[in-house]
Predict the 3D structure of the following.
Amino acid sequence: MGLLSDPHCRRALSRLVLRLNTPLCALSYVMGLGWFLALAFQPLAPRTYMSENAMGSTMVEEQFLFGERALSYAREFAGHKKKAGGMPVAWLEKTMWSLGLEVHRQPFARTLPFPDETRERYMVKGTNVYGILRAPRAASTESLVLSVPCTEGPHNNQAVGLMLALAAYFRGQIYWAKDIIFLVNEHDLLGMEAWLEAYHDVNVTGEVRSSGTLGRAGAIQAAISLELSSDVVTSFDVAVEGLNGQLPNLDLLNLFHAFCQKNGLLCTIQGKLPRSDWDSLPAYAHSLQTLLLMVLAQASGRPRGDHGLFLRYRIEAITLRGINSFRQYKYDMTTVGKTLEGMFRKLNNLLERLHQSYFFYLLPSLSRFVSIGIYMPAFGFLLLVLILKISFLGGREAGEGQAAPSGPGMDSRPGLLALVPPLLICQAAGLALYCLPVLGQRVATQHFPVSEAEAVVLTAIAIYVAGMALPHSTHRVLAGAGSDRGWMTLKLLALLYLALQLGCLALLNFSLGFLLAATMVPAAAAVQPNGPRVLLAVLLVLATPAATLLLGIFLQRELVEAPAAAGEGWQLFLAAVGEGLLQHHLYGALPFPFLALCAYPAWLLLWNVLFWK
Amino acid sequence: MAAAAAALLLLLLAAAAGPGRVGAGRARRDALREELLLSPLPAGDVAATFQFRTRWDADLPRGAGLAVLLKAERLFHSSYHSQAVHIRPICRDASCLAVSWELRQTLTVVFDTFSSGQGKKDWSLFKMFSRTLTDACPLASQSKVYVDISPKNKEKELLEVTPAPASVYEAIVQGDKRTYAVYDLLSPSLFNTSRSLNVQLKWKRPQDTELPTPVLHAQRYVSGYGLQTGEISTLIYNTHPYRAFPVMLLETVPWYLRLYVHTLTIITKGKENKPSYIHYQPAQDRRRPHLLEMLIQLPANSVTKITIQFERALLKWTEYTPDPNHGFYVSSSVLSALVPSVIAMKDVDVEQSPLFTSLFPSSDGSSYFVRLYTEPLLVNLPTPDFSMPYNVICLTCTVVAVCYGSFYNLLTRTFHVEEPSRGGLAKRLANIIRKFRGVPPL
């Protein structure tokens, strides 16, 4: 405090910030990136451990022996699915009934805002079937969910089979304290969203129509979504990232990991096996790859499995995917069933909701985690660049204001009021980007030879690019253009806006915040009208959120060792834009509205600064 | 089980009447009536209700009669059980000059035929209790087993019960005609052919999946998500084909769910249903819960949805239970109704009819009384993380708040270096003197 209350020290400090601003900014940026890269270094990432006492050990004697039965159910289900040409509702109901479950069905219908071309659906009608195993001598206040998506084609039959075999086995046990819901959902996420909204009797995304009376089983404590498409598996991949980058409690993942180790199952995260060594360079590269994949998946904000939608309702959930690769050692259904049985019995023991362990974490491998306290400084350093720059601009302005009150340049200094038009125009461009693609799809398909989905994506890109022509029009509105002070005030506002956005975003979805900060911050800090304009323009274009998305796609393909060519990358980019819009309208995902309404206008403000005349 | 219950009762008695009276009276053979009622439930499970009625001063059965079936390991391997004790005064004779105390113990168990019968719904006494009946209780004046063999849907018999019953009893229970096979353990012919009685029941053909629904049933749940607001929804079903009847709904909701009474909506068949009577007593924080009582008319064959929104209160940190993340229970709401019956009922002589008819009281010939309890609810309240990080957060917030204030103060205030004034003491003294003199200070 003494440092600041002493005017001499204060002056010295502000002089230091002003004079060494650029080196300090560069240093802070490098520190931020360096810190992030160091997260994959094992000593910074402690081993995961079980925090929840009720699930403390894996001391459960699993007695599930019905792997063969699961496979016969799977074959039967596949036959009926083929015959019905979709979900065999009647057969499922009959089978669940004969297993002694309380069976319910939930028909739902949903019309998408525009056709989804990758999954080929527009007007969707489906039925979810679920059976409730009522816990004996309990009042149905709590429940667990085992969900299996019923997908088209020959996928996931084994998962349904295993679920039915588990249901048959669980039905005969008397130790259940929570009801167990066995759910088969059609049209994967759409069905899941419809079911969750009906179960909680809310309407989040609008327009899902479902009917019928629903059986309920109280508050759902945890959910596991299972995907299995082969009779034997070599490993299990676990997906944690949910809608908007929400993550389940780390204890659920620990539970899965513990039972995998107990039964000797191989398990992976992001498709990467954990390595035993940590002090070699390849091991570091490996965990960095895993970490980057997780960051990219979380930043995309889309659920990486059916579990992703549960998280909104504060239900801890993960998706388990059985992988059958060319490895030597295979595991049969009995082992898989035992693992699931163990997990459910442990979850059954829960006295409270899972809350003991971390909700915010990054995983460089399945057995190690980086907690929020360790990864946040990386973002903090990036944000510090903006703060330094803001204080620099503020200091310069204050200095000018003190130096030139007597000068005659009153007319050349625009007041804050003059900056309102560019702000409004940029925000309006963002609003247009948010609304027009879906609203204008009909007009676009009438005038251009494109399908609805293409029209939406291309309109979005067109509006995005058209926004870059805005500086030419905003200048006409600006009265007091032409002074240094004008662009500085505008830049100050843009930086404040950007820092505020990124700061809020990083609290909700660290990965998205960090990726946007890492790309936008250097360009935002460097931009000014009287420098090497072409170089800065290229830098700024590279830093736009759309370019970040494109780079992210290439990076992701590179990390999963399936590099995309330029054309393929472009196709993926178009698909990702359409997907982002759909995710927003169907499940309420936030990345698209954030980019359109916040990040894009902020970037346009910076673009305006660059072309200040 | 029986022994435990008897011990408990003896304690009760000791508390009520003082030690000297326990077991003072001599047991009389007509003191005890015991009864076992077995009824298959629609879903395939079996409910078994034991009733022992005796005079207060009589001995309770131990290890004989129906009580041999009470084995804890089997009774707890079940879906549901409930125990009840009733004590009431009765007249010793017609003139009612002396009063006895009647004691009735009831134990109802629902056996899960699925988990014990490997998917088959056939059952027998041995399968359920791993015991069979060998004789009646030597103290009992009446010892009977009733098995519900009512045909469903007026079709031909679906059930086959062995051994064939000696007699059949017909009764009307909850507006439905029921037929019971009766086995009198006191009749000597029962144990003539075989040494023990093992009642068996077989389904002649597999049951259809359509469950018969009761005339009045209800469902309650919490809707919404997040920790700020929510909604309690109650669905009440009236499946009677042509009769409407009123139902009394009683809800008590703890004070930490702040109900918004203006959001109370009652909707039947898409239209608003105005309750004919509402009594609402608002909650007082930490004193009493909300009390909401309503008389609602249920039209025939309808679903009535009652919703009311609430806001979750923040508790003081000492008010949380040791397991705050488990959630807080909201007790069941109580539905009471006189449900119109399909079949006319006749009044029965209470003393002569089987004991179990007293479980289903009927008010008059045309309707019967039903009281339903809905599911209790589990509601999560906003809960702080009662752990070390929570303390750290509290501490950090305090430090940040304190620092921020002074930091902001420093940043926004402009400082001037002030020349120290000379002769401060002299001036102050002079001013004091001037003040006394009534002259303005320097």
About this structure: Chain A is about 55% helix and 15% strand. Chain A has a mean pLDDT of 86. Residues 193 and 309 of chain A are 7 Å apart (CA to CA). The two ends of chain A are 42 Å apart (CA to CA).
